[in-house]
Every structure is written in C-alpha cells, then in structure tokens.
Amino acid sequence: MNYTNNSVDMSSGAYYTTLEVAKMLGMAVRSVQLMVDRGDLQAMPQLVRAGGILPLVTGVAAMHGGASLRPSGRRRHSVHVPRILLIEDSAHFQGLVSTLVKQRYPAIELHVSADAIAGLVSFGHLQPDLIIVDILLPGMDGATLITGLRNHALFGNCKLVVLTALDAQQREPYAAALDGVDVVHKPRLVQELPPLIEAALGHLLANKDAAEEPAPAANGGALALAPSEPPPVKAKASKARSSKPKAKAAGKSGQQPAG
Amino acid sequence: MEQVPPKPCSLPALPEGSEVLRLPRCEQVALQSLFDNDSDLYLAFRAACIEQFVHDFELAAALLAAQQDRAAFSRLAHSLKGVLNTLGHTEISPLAHALQLEAERADWPELQRLWLELRARMVAAFGLDALA
Asked: Is B45 within 8 Å of A103 when comparing Cβ atoms?
C-alpha cells in the first residue's frame, strides 16, 4: 500500500499554489481551499511571488512522498508502470484486493485511499490507469465521487470500476452515476475483478513485459522488437452487473512495487 | 435484503487433508463458488478478516460508547455485511445488514442489542472465543 509521508521539503519544489492544485485536481480553487480547511491538504504560510501573494498547498506532495509530477502534471516513466488506485474504506477489502493484485499482477502498482477526499487527491497526483472505487465511503457520497472522477480534467483514458457490497436494488439511487460503469459485487470480487483489470490494463502489462525482455541478438533484432500496437485484451469484460466472467488471470510470481 | 445465493454444489474438488476440509460447510461452498477453489487466497483472506474483526469489535464498542457517529456505525455494519457474504456466512450477514439500516434511525440501546447479537454470531462462526 502507499503510505503517506508528511515531511515537506520546500527546497525540492514539492509544493504547489492553491491555483496549481486546483488545476491538477480539476477542481475549483474554492474546493481546494475547503480541503485545506478540513485538513485534507496542508497549507503553508503565504509566499510572495511576482504578481501577488499566493498561499501554498503542500498536501498533495506531502501525502505522496514528493514531487513525481512534471509541471504539466504527467508522470515520469520511461516504461509505463500500470497503476491502480483503490478507494475503499474497508480494511477487509483493501486486503483482499491487494492480495489478489499482488498474486496475479505483480507488475501493477496498487495505491489505496481509505476515503473519498484522499482518493480524489491521490487521483490527481497518481493519475492511475484504473481506479477501483467503493460507493459508500466516508467524506463524500459515492455518486458525487464517481461523477467528480469522470468529470475530472485528468480523467482522460483512466478506466473506472465500482466495487460495492450493495446489491442491484440498493444501487438504484446511484443509477445515473453508475451508467456505463463496470460494477463488481464484493462477494464476487475474486471472480469478476481480474477480468476487468485485464480488460483495462492488459495492453499495458503486455507492453511492460515486452519492454523488460532482454535485448535481442544482433541478428534477430528486427524480428524481436516489441509490437507497436497493443495486443488484444485477454479477457473481455461485460458491463452487465450480472456478468460472470470466466477468464482466469495468468498467475505470476514476484514482488509488487506498492500495495 | 442482500442475498448471495450459494451455488448448489458438491465438494469433491477440495484437496484431501486440506485445512479447508475443517471449514464450515458454508465457507467451503464460498471457496468453491466465489473463490474458484483458490484455497490459498480464501484462507489468507479469512485469516486477515479474523485479525481485522478484533479492530472492528473495538471500533463498534467505541462508537456505541460515544453514541455520536451513526454514519461510521452504519459503514462498519455495511463492511461486515460484505465480508460475511464473501466468506460464505450468508446466514449471519442479514444481521449486519439490519444493523446497517437501523444505525441510521434506531436508538442506541437498540443498536447495542443488535450489535451484541451480530457479534455473538461472528464469535461462534469464526471461533473468536478469546474475544467473547
């Protein structure tokens, strides 16, 4: 799991103005200020800059251990590491998802946020390839969170899976927010989540595997280059809540970078 | 009321002499129908849940003593409902679901009664006698 680091190194540039944080998170400045008021973000004393006095917000950097973002907000990776953000308050299911991902997809980085606000902040910072989100969370109504994520300026090609213990009837109040979203009923997590992970990240896993292969022999190089197009996804996941995907994830062994 | 219908199935696929043979029948069914017979994963999850139940029980006691945070109590009951269903204890999970619903409206003594009923069933189901 991704543990937080509350130390702030001002010399590293790992701090942002309120306006910059608002842009990173795709939120209004006022919303960021409210997060500061609630203590979700840490605000530092004001800094005089050319053009005005700007309050500094360091929580984004502090919560995630430093600046790994470019000024544009994009991640630095020579090889793209598939990244999942799980927003889930239940320690039980945090553990089950972590174990499952570690067991079957050791190449994937899994980060965990235990509430909606921290999840939104982590989303803006991490820019995951897949976000798995519970509906009933502390801090924010699930429908609001999901809508906020999908409207997020950085959402881009990020995939979204909802993980919930609510049955179909209990999900009705969230129908609008869940429209077109893959929903996994928690008791069927072990069966239904892996195919959705493969559907969302399969091409990234294949690319990473190809990038990590040993350099080809000189006489075979041309034939051993990684494919320029992502390979077909191994498992096709349906949108239906009653779906029962049967595809099994390929077992792998190794150490998970985070999670 | 949430129901996760266990699939009717026999249990010949369970490995002989395995720890899973000592599990309650409902858990063996869950292992087969919800975990695709991945006994390592099921047993790891079960062990982690039992460890976490200690913290859940402490949290429930604290919330009942403070009598303030209904939302947190509801979320705890909701979490336990999902866990119990996933582990195969569909006979206990309705108690957690009822507690989740009542957490938003019932008075605290009634929540205390419901909680103690759920807790006792969990203690019996998972052999948590040391916590009783």
From this structure: no
Nearest CA to B38 out of B18, B22, B52, B17 is that of: B18
- Best of A162, A163, A190, A192 to disrupt the B interface (most B CBs within 10 Å) is A190
Q: pLDDT digit string (tens) for A114-133?
A: 998 899 889 988 999 999 99
- Those residues whose C-beta lies under 8 Å from the C-beta of residue A75, and which sit 6 or more positions away, are A68, A69, A126, A127
Tell me whether residues B2 and A166 touch, CB distance under 8 A: yes
Query: How high is the mean pLDDT in each 10-residue block of chain B (132 residues)?
Result: 46 65 94 94 96 96 96 95 97 96 94 97 90 64
Q: Which residues of B touch A186 (CB under 8 A)?
A: 82, 85-86
The helix or strand, by DSSP H or E, that contains position A84, with its residue range, turns out to be strand A83-87
ipTM value of the model?
0.86
CB B103 within 8 Å of CB B109: no
The answer to whether the CB atoms of A99 and B45 lie below 8 A apart is yes
pTM of the entire structure? 0.68
